[in-house]
User: What shape does this take?
Amino acid sequence: MVSVVSTSQRALAPEISTWPADDPQLIGSKCDSCGAVTFPTQQRCPRCSSGSMAELLLPRTGTLVAWTTQGFPPGAPYAGPTGKEFVPFGVGLVQLGTGEDAVIRVEGRLTENDPAKLEFGQDVELTMIPFTTDADGNEVVTFAFQPVTN
Assistant: This one.
């Protein structure tokens, strides 16, 4: 008898996004007193110290402001692949929202790791990508930004 092992997925940090929604969004917070937006959510405003922070679903799209390639495994608490299994990945600073709807800059992984294929102001959108596999065989996913192809 052959047994088939099925794996499931889980988020690396389930509290920061609406995944597994079809079109996941990052979850930030907005200060009711001064309007500052944070990611991830915070209990107190970093701008005015108010404790009146409300949850805010952040825009799924934005523009690439800066980027680099992470060519070696990050330090602790990094829990992803290391050694020969590590694959360099892109990291970018993304301005979420556009124009007057621009709300916050978020640093995150990019689906593209070749800097020559990225450009300032490039449109990107939020996606979820595989990160690692946990001890139970579950695929662990994390958020990333992918270039929007027109």
